[in-house]
C-alpha cells in the first residue's frame, strides 16, 4: 500500500547512522521518517554481519552488530518515527522547507529537509565471473553474507578472497565447519592480527589454505553444489568438495537513484560540509558512510557524531531564525516512550 507521510526530516537509509539520527533529531523535537530499501532496519550491521563483534563502539568493549542495532532500536523507540521499509527512494524534488520524495512502491514523503544516510547505497556483493553462478545462488549454495553461524555447522565451506571478510569468516566458521580458503596470493589484505591468526589456524590443520588459486567453476546438480573447481594462473586445477561457497570480493558501491540528483560527489560519495553535513543542495544533508569530506573515516562512531552535527544544522532550516539552546541529554531527559 502506498503511503503519504509528512515529517520535518525524511531519512533515507535505516542503517545504524540513520537510526541514530532519529534520536538526535527527536531530542531537538524534530519529527522524522525512516525509509529503507531493505525489509529490516540496521543496514550493513543487520544485513551483512549481525553476529560479528564490533570493538570500537565507545563503552562497549565488544558488541555484536545485531545487538547494537537492537539497542539503537530501543533508544529511538520513544520518538515513534514512522518506518517505510522494503522501499527504495527513487525521486527527490523540491527545495529547503518543502521536499517530496518518491519511492519505488509509490509512496510520497513530504519533508522540510532530507537526510541521506544511505551508506554504501544499494550495496551488493562483487560476484565472481563464474558460469551458472545464479543457479547456485538461487539454492543458497553460493552466499555472500553470513547471517547465522549455525547454518554452516557440519558443512564443507569454501571461502574465496583475501580481505578482512574472508579472513574473519574463515576464523569464525572454522569451529563449526570444514573451511578451505582460496586466495590467489599468499599475502592477505586483512588486519595483520587476523591474518596471523588464520596462518596459525592453518598450521594447526583447522583451516585448509588453497593458495595461489582462483575460482574457476562450480560443480553440482540442479544448483546444489558438490565441489568448487579452482585453478592457478598456470592452469593447474584442483577440485574442492564443498556444500557452500562464500565469495568475499568486496561490496560494490552503487548510489542508485541518489546519484542522479545532481549532488556534488567525490568517487561515488556525497560531498558535505563537515560543519553541518549539508550537501551541495540546500536542505539536503548526508551522514554516515555515504558522506565524505577531508578526514572522513567510514566508522559507525563517526556517523553517530555526524548525526548530531546534522540535527543541529537541520534545526536551523526547519525553524529559521529560532535560537537553539544547547542542552545535554542528562538535562533534557528523553520522552517517556
Ligand atoms: C564485515 C564488516 C565489518 C565492519 N566492522 C566495523 C567495525 O568494526 N566498526 C565500525 O565502525 N564499522 C564497521 N563496519 C562498517 C559499518 O558497518 C558502516 O560504517 C556502517 O554500517 C555505516 O552505517 P550507515 O548507516 O551510514 O550505512 P549502512 O549501514 O550502509 O546503511 C545504509 C542503508 O541505506 C539503505 N539505502 C541505500 N540507498 C537507499 C535508497 N535509495 N532508498 C532506501 N534505502 C536506501 C540501505 O538499504 C541500507 O540499509 C563494518 C562493515 C562490514 C561490512
Report on the structure:
The structure is a single chain. This protein has 337 residues and is an alpha/beta fold. The chain contains eight helices and 21 strands. The strands form six sheets. Strands 1, 2, 5, 6, 7, 8 and 20 form a seven-stranded mixed β-sheet that branches. A hairpin with a 2-residue loop joins strand 18 and strand 19. Helix 1 packs parallel to helix 3 and helix 5 crosses helix 6. The radius of gyration is 22 Å and the shape is elongated. The two termini are 27 Å apart. The model has no long low-confidence stretch (mean pLDDT 94). The protein binds flavin-adenine dinucleotide (FAD). The site of flavin-adenine dinucleotide has 38 residues, from helix 1, strand 2, helix 2 and helix 7. The site of flavin-adenine dinucleotide (FAD) has 38 residues, from helix 1, strand 2, helix 2 and helix 7.
SSE blueprint and pairings:
Blueprint: E1 4-12, H1 16-27, E2 32-36, H2 43-47, E3 53-54, E4 63-64, H3 65-76, E5 83-85, E6 89-95, E7 98-103, E8 108-116, E9 124-125, H4 133-139, E10 156-160, H5 164-173, E11 178-182, H6 192-203, E12 207-210, E13 214-221, E14 224-231, E15 237-241, E16 244-247, E17 251-252, E18 265-266, E19 269-271, E20 284-286, E21 291-292, H7 300-318, H8 329-332
Parallel strand pairs: 1-2, 1-8, 2-5, 8-20, 10-11, 10-16, 11-12, 19-21
Antiparallel strand pairs: 3-4, 6-7, 7-8, 9-17, 13-14, 14-15, 18-19
Helix pairs in contact: 1-3, 1-7, 5-6
The structure holds flavin-adenine dinucleotide (FAD).
Residues 12-18, 35-38, 43-45, 48-49, 52, 54, 56, 88-89, 117-122, 165, 256-258, 288-289, 298-301, 303 line the site of flavin-adenine dinucleotide (FAD).
Amino acid at each position: 500500500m502506498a503511503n503519504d507521510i509528512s515529517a520535518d526530516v525524511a531519512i533515507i537509509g535505516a542503517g545504524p547512522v540513520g537510526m541514530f539520527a532519529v534520536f538526535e533529531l527527536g531530542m531537538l523535537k524534530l519529527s522524522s521518517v525512516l525509509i529503507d530499501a531493505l525489509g529490516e532496519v540496521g543496514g550493513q550491521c543487520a544485513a551483512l554481519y549481525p553476529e560479528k563483534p564490533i570493538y570500537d563502539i565507545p563503552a562497549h568493549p565488544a558488541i555484536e552488530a545485531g545487538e547494537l542495532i537492537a539497542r539503537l532500536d530501543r533508544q529511538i523507540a520513544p520518538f515513534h518515527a514512522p518506518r517505510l521499509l522494503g522501499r527504495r527512494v527513487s525521486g527527490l524534488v523540491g527545495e529547503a522547507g518543502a521536499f517530496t520524495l518518491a519511492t519505488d512502491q509509490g509512496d510520497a514523503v513530504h519533508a522540510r529537509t532530507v537526510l541521506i544516510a544511505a551508506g554504501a547505497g544499494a550495496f551488493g556483493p562483487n560476484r565472481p565471473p563464474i558460469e551458472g553462478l545464479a543457479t547456485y545462488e538461487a539454492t543458497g549454495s553460493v552466499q555472500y553474507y553470513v547471517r547465522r553461524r549455525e547454518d554452516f555447522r557440519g558443512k564443507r565451506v569454501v571461502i574465496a578472497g583475501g580481505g578482512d571478510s574472508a579472513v574473519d569468516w574463515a576464523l569464525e566458521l572454522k569451529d563449526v565447519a570444514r573451511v578451505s580458503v582460496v586466495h590467489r596470493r599468499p599475502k592477505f589484505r586483512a588486519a595483520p592480527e587476523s591474518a596471523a591468526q588464520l596462518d596459525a589456524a592453518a598450521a594447526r590443520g583447522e583451516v585448509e589454505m588453497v593458495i595461489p588459486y582462483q575460482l574457476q567453476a562450480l560443480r553440482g546438480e540442479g544448483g546444489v553444489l558438490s565441489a568448487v573447481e579452482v585453478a592457478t594462473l598456470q592452469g593447474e586445477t584442483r577440485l574442492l568438495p564443498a556444500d557452500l561457497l562464500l565469495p568475499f570480493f568486496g561490496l560494490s558501491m552503487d548510489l542508485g537513484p541518489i546519484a542522479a540528483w545532481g549532488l556534488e560527489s567525490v568517487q561515488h560519495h556525497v560531498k558535505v560540509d563537515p560543519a553541518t553535513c549539508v550537501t551541495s543542495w540546500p536542505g539536503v544533508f548526508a551522514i554516515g558512510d555515504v558522506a565524505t569530506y577531508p578526514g572522513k573515516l567510514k566508522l559507525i562512531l563517526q556517523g553517530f557524531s555526524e548525526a548530531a552535527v546534522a540535527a543541529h544544522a537541520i534545526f536551523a532550516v526547519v525553524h529559521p531564525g529560532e535560537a537553539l539552546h544547547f542542552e545535554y541529554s542528562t538535562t533534557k531527559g528523553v520522552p517517556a516512550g
